[in-house]
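Predict structure. Chain length: 225.
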Amino acid sequence: MLCLLLAACGAPPIRPPEAPAPPAGTPAPRQPSGAGAHFRIDAAHSELRILVYRAGPMAALGHNHVISTHAVQGWATLSADPAAVGFALRVPVADFAVDDAGLRAQEGADFAENVTDEAKSGTLHNMLGPAVLNAVEFPALTLRSTAVTGTGHAYQARIALQVAGHASTLVVPFVLDASPGRLVASGELTVSQSDLGLTPFSIFLGALKVKDEMRVRFKFVAVAG
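Prediction complete.
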């Protein structure tokens, strides 16, 4: 999950780095064998969306941003045995997109202003750079459940998260809709970048910066197989 990020548009626009090739040691999470129904993530119908907000006395010079990706890999397992229920996800950070116009429109007034291509480019460059996600050394963020509890449609998962080499633990509430051969897990939560081991982007001695708290929304679809 989640996130990551950012980079303010106040920085000069720079050509984004090319997507780093994932090293051999970072394959998609391997699904365990054993009891239970096994599912694989359907990336085409899954989405991770992160809303980040400008802050500081010079905030008017920056923008709020929508960071999104469909490039989610992983698996999930359902079982009558609670200990066998779980999931693992891998999200390549180079596949994040900045400020898709359709997504900004969905998010309402806080994202209504126009963001230039230069501002998007500068934001992506800073986000993937060594000061934030460090995409060259850490090409993906990963998360794995350590416990899943709940009944009906309401669940929560304790997850172990790795972002840019930093390990953290989060409790994530989500709604689970299960149908034959298909799972849909969705939810949202507020996460602080500092809790993930990241330092929010800041320039001009903090006069223009990215707010520590970001809003994370997700919809992960998994199909049998």
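Summary: The first helix runs from residue 101 to 106.
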